Amino acid sequence: MALAIVLHNIDWKYAEGKYDNLPKITLEHFPLCYLLILADKLQEWDRPGRQSKIRPKDISIEFDHDEKKFKVKMA
Hints:
It is a single chain. The chain has helices spanning 2-8, 12-18, 31-43, and strands at residues 59-64, 69-74. By secondary structure, the chain is an alpha+beta fold. It is globular and about 35 Å long.
């Protein structure tokens, strides 16, 4: 559980530029971490933020059964 909490707080965009062979967070391999990241993203909906406002009508979440993961799409 501690690993999931640590992994979900990593700035992945920064880490991808600095390190090779990072694990891909998928529902199948890191289910708790994946769900924590998803919950964080859902909590950002319709909240004013420092960078931009995410509006519920501008985003969709679909489950890809072949890849066994959720896909978030911005309008």
